[in-house]
């Protein structure tokens, strides 16, 4: 807060750069208010002061045929990628399209994929989840969907519990404590050191737990340990990663084995395979 020396409550210290950054990533006024923990009216007043319009990026006017071509290129052979992921990728290409138009395009371009996702969809009731703020808690875990080919997808991945920012994500051929530690340290140089981390009881987490307790202190929950199923944020990330990326590699690698292009029992072939795909 900033005291102006006049009557009334102090003014919240929110810069134009902060609001521009959030607007760039499609934050709405209510979401901005939740992020700063202030009222929505204060956010809207500050947006007017800085002349920031949240609706500047209006929907691009393109024909259904053009949209279908873009959606088809994004989907490729991945039948699991949904409209929300497609819409994000379109936005990354500076093409803002409404959610409904993207859904309609998916039904036209990929009816089989839409039916598959509808059949497999499972609505999970998540527990209420609250974190104090950015860098309060990082969720860290590994995933072994591709372990058959000695690929530990993100020999660790980390995600900020408050903002859902993916702080690090890396594919490796091991999940040794030193590998996990190096990934965490590299992430902290870019995003800062979190107040706490949430990990499972695996031995690969020993070094990062020791670092956190040494840096932040003991007996305060600097390194929270529990079962992976309760590590909610990172488990959700693994679902998105599988549906958007990993499943295609899994199918490709399995196909390579089916047609005898790859023999994972041969050390030479496995080395060449990892050299190509790492």
TrEMBL record:
Residues 130-237 form the Integrase catalytic domain. It comes from the Eukaryota. It holds the Pfam family rva_4. Coiled coil: none annotated. GO terms for biological process: DNA integration. One of its GO terms (molecular function) is nucleic acid binding. This is Integrase catalytic domain-containing protein.
């Amino acid at each position: 807060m900033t005291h102006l020396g006049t009557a009334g409550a102090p003014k919240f210290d929110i810069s134009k750069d902060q609001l521009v950054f959030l607007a760039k990533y499609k934050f709405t006024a209510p979401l901005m208010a939740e992020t700063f923990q202030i009222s929505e009216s204060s956010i809207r007043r500050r947006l007017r002061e800085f002349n920031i319009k949240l609706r500047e990026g209006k929907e691009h006017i393109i024909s259904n045929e053009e949209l279908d071509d873009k959606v088809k290129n994004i989907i490729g052979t991945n039948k699991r990628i949904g409209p929300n992921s497609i819409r994000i990728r379109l936005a990354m290409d500076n093409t803002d399209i409404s959610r409904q138009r993207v859904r309609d395009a998916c039904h036209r371009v990929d009816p089989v994929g839409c039916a598959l996702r509808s059949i497999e969809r499972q609505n999970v009731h998540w527990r209420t989840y609250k974190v104090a703020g950015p860098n309060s808690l990082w969720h860290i875990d590994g995933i072994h969907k591709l372990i058959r080919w000695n690929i530990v997808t993100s020999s660790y991945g980390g995600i900020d519990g408050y903002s859902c920012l993916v702080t690090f994500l890396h594919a490796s051929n091991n999940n040794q404590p030193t590998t996990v530690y190096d990934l965490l340290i590299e992430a902290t140089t870019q995003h800062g050191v979190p107040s706490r981390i949430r990990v499972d009881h695996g031995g690969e987490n020993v070094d990062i737990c020791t670092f956190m307790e040494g840096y932040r202190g003991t007996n305060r929950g600097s390194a929270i340990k529990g079962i992976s199923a309760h590590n909610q944020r990172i488990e959700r990330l693994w679902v998105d990663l599988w549906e958007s990326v990993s499943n295609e590699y899994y199918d490709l690698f399995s196909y390579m084995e089916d047609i005898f292009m790859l023999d994972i029992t041969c050390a030479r072939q496995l080395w060449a395979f990892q050299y190509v795909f790492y």
